[in-house]
Amino acid sequence: MKRTSVELGVGVFVFIGMLAVGYLTVKLGRMEMFAGDYYLVSARFQNVSGLKAGSSVEIAGVPVGQVSAIRVNPENFAAVVEMKIDKGVALTDDTIASVKTQGLIGDKYIKLSPGGSDKGLQPGDTMVETESAVDFEELLSKYVMGKV
User: Fold this and answer.
1) Are residues 16 and 73 in the same domain?
2) pLDDT means per 10 residues in the chain (148 residues)?
3) Strands 79-86, 62-72: parallel, antiparallel or unpaired by DSSP?
């Protein structure tokens, strides 16, 4: 009888440990198991080199979302970046989305600069004001060739 209770206790302990490891894996990997408290907006850019799905979206250095997908618009061959924005963050229709670099050669992220409009962005809307990523290789080649 005592052996059965010890085995049952060990089994419960192992099960709780596996649940804890699974939870931490999901949380630390920033995966979403259920629908989050966010809404989707998109922005069109001419160049998003280095930006990846999962990159951070920030306002004033504070993370407010992340890039969910990047695709090419087949009509005008512009990059369309879809972003998940926290529901508590209300963006206006004149918000400027810029592709920025963290540090000198760091990861790319989206910086949002809110505007002064009274009209807000609705889920599924597209930001019109954007600034593409700076291509340092192109700038360097222009400088070397004397075209600057």
Assistant:
1) no
2) 82 92 77 70 87 89 90 89 89 87 81 84 82 73 73
3) antiparallel
